[in-house]
Amino acid sequence: MRNAFADEVTKIGAENTDVVLLSGDIGNRLFDNMKAACEGRVINCGVAEANMMGLAAGMALNGLKPIVYTITPFTTTRCLEQIRVDVCYHEAPVVIVGTGAGLSYAQLGPTHHSVEDIALLRTLPGMTVLCPCDQMEVRAALRAAVAHDGPVYMRIGKKGEPQIHEQMPDFKIGKAMTMRDGSDVCLISTGNMMKVVLDAADLLAGTGVKARVEGFPTVKPLDGERLAELFDKFPLIAVAEEHSRIGGLAASIAEWLIEQRSFSGQLMSFGTADEFMHVIGSQNYARAHFGLTAEHIAGEVGKTIMSNAAVA
Amino acid sequence: MSTASSIQNGNFLTQDIETLRDTAALIRSRIITTSHRSKTPHLASCLSCVDIMVALYFNIMRIDAGKPADPARDRFILSKGHGAPGLFQVLAERGFYPVSDLDTYGADGGIFAEHPPTPHHLPGIEAATGSLGHGLPMGLGMATAGRLKGLDFRVFVVLGDGECNEGSNWEAAMFAGARALDNVVVIVDYNKWQATGRSEEIMSLGPLVDKWHAFGWNACEADGHDMDGLVSILSEVPDGSGKPKAIIAHTIKGKGVSFMEDDNNWHYRIPNEEEVAAANRELGVPA
User: Fold this and answer.
1) Quick check: A242 and A272 in contact, CB under 8 A?
2) Are B154 and B185 in contact (CB under 8 A)?
3) Best mutation target, A38, A39, A45, A51, to test chain B (most B CBs within 10 A)
4) Burial A142-181 (b: 16+ CB within 10 A, else e)
C-alpha cells in the first residue's frame, strides 16, 4: 500500500501545487519521484512528530494542503495533542497518513503496532477516518482525502498486501462498498482485513452459508444508510478489523445502534484483545494470535449461525 | 492616548515611541479592570508581554485590521495562550473588533475565554493556543507556507519562559534552524517565573541566548519593556543573518503596577476594586 501511496501522492502533488508531503524521517527513496516532481514540497521533518503536526496545521491554515506521513503510532498517538488542538480544533484540512497500521509491523514489537489509532482519532471532532483495503483503495481514498475540506486520518498497511480491486474504485467518504453478495450473514471489514474476510466468506460458502461482504473504508463518518439496510436484512453481522475491539469499527457500529434506539440483530466483533503482544512473530502470526484468520472468523460465525438455528 | 498621533503608513500603523508607551499603559489598565470584572486570572503573565505586543501591533507588523485574512499579512501567535486577556485588548485597540466587545469578557455564551479562540471565531487570531508548546510549530508551518507561496510576510511568536519547558519548542527550533526560516521571530517573554515557581529552579532554562544560538538561530537579548529598544530590534526582520531570530526579552511579571511586579501570586490572583484604582493611578489612566 505504501508504494501505491507514494505513487499516487506524487501524481496528486504534480497536479496541485498546494500539496506538501511532510514525513518523519522515513520512506528512504520512497519519495524520490515526488521530490523531483514537486520541488520544495517534500519536507523531511525529522524524528519530531509534535513539531511536524503543528507545522502541518500552520500550513493548512495558510492555503497549503499538507499530507503528514510516518509510521502509524508516531503520526497518531505520539502527537495526539497536536492532532486534537492544532489540526482538529482549528478545522485545519490536514491529511494524516499512518503507514504500517494495525499489525503490519508485528515483528517490530508493540512500540510499532497500532491497534488503538481508530479509537483515538475518531473521537476527535471533525476528524474523518479512512481505512482503505488495498493499493487501489489507497489511491482513491487519498484523492478523496486531499479533496476533503477538513482533517482526515488514513491508516494504510506497508507493502505486498493482496490486491482486491482491479481498478481504482469509486470512492466516496462515508460510503460503504458491497464486495460480495450473500443472504445468510453479513461480514463487514475495514482496512487490510478485506482479504481475510473474503476468504472467510469462501469458507462459509463451502458449508452452504452465503455471506455478504461489505467494505467500510470510512470508519467515520459511518455509512448509516447502509448499516440500516444491513441490520434490516441480516440477523447476524460480524465485523473484522486489525484493530482493538475497543473503539474500532465494530464499537462504532455498536454506538450507531445505540442511537437508533430500537434495533434487532446480533453483532460479532473480531479484533485484537485488550493486551500488548509480548511474543514476536510475523503479521500472520500476530493475526492468528488474535483470531484474525479466515478459519477462525468463518468457524465462529458458522457456530453462531448453528446455535441461533438450534434456538429457533 | 489615542491613535491621533499615529502615522498611517498605507494601511499600516506606525505609532511613535511615546504613543506606544501610552497605548501600553492603556492596555495594561484595561487588562486589570477586565480581570477584576470578569474574575480572569493570569494578570501578571499578561502584563509582562504587553510592551512586546504593543510594539508589534502598533509599529512593526504589516497588518490591516480591516483585512484580517489578507494572505500577505504578518502573523502573530501568542503561544503562551494564557496571555490572551492582553492579546484581546491589543486586537480591540488595533481595530480588529470594537473595544466594547470586551465588555462581555468571560460571559456565558461569549467567545472571550481565558485563551484565544480559533481564527474562525475571532478576527486577528492566527492560532488557538492555551496548551503550551503549540504556537511555534504552527508558526513555522505558516512561515513555510509563505516561502512556498512566494509571500514575504513575517511570523512573530511570543513564548513564555515556562513554556520553554515543552519539548515541542525545541523540535521546532531545530527545524527552523535547519531550514533557515529567517521570516520567523521568537520573542521569549523571560519574566523568570512560571505558574508555581522560579523558572530556573524548576527546569534548567538558561542560558537562553546560548540555547537558541546552538539550535541555529540568531539570538539576542533585549529589555522587554524598553519600547525604543524593542522597536529598533524588531524593525530588522529578516535581519540579514539568514537565520530565524530569537529575542530573549527580559521582562518583569506584573510589569507596570508596583505591587504586582515580580510577585508570582498575581499569576492567579484577581485584583479587588481598591487594587484596580491604585493600579490605574500608577499607570496614569483615568478609571
Assistant:
1) yes
2) yes
3) A51
4) bbbbbeeebbbbbbbbbeebeebbeebbebebbbbbebbe
Nearest residue on chain A to B170, alpha-carbon basis? A51
Q: Which of B120, B131, B175 sits opposite A46 (nearest CB)?
A: B175
| N-terminal to C-terminal alpha carbon distance within chain B | 14
Per-residue DSSP letter, B71: T
* Cα B33 from Cα A46, distance rounded (Å): 46
Nearest Cα of chain A lies from the Cα of B72 at a distance, in angstroms, of: 10
- Please give the ipTM for the structure prediction: 0.95
CB proximity B115 to A under 8 Å: no
User: Which one, of A133, A141, A159, lies nearest residue A283 by Cα?
Assistant: A159
* Inter-chain CB pairs, A–B, below 8 Å: 102
- Picking from B140, B144, B154 by the largest number of A CB atoms within 10 A of its own CB, the best residue to mutate is B144
β-pair type (A218-220, A236-244): unpaired
The pTM of the full predicted model, rounded to 2 decimals, is 0.96
Over chain A (312 residues), what is each successive 10-residue block's mean pLDDT? 96 98 93 96 97 98 98 97 98 98 95 97 98 98 98 95 95 98 98 97 98 98 97 97 98 96 90 96 97 98 95 80
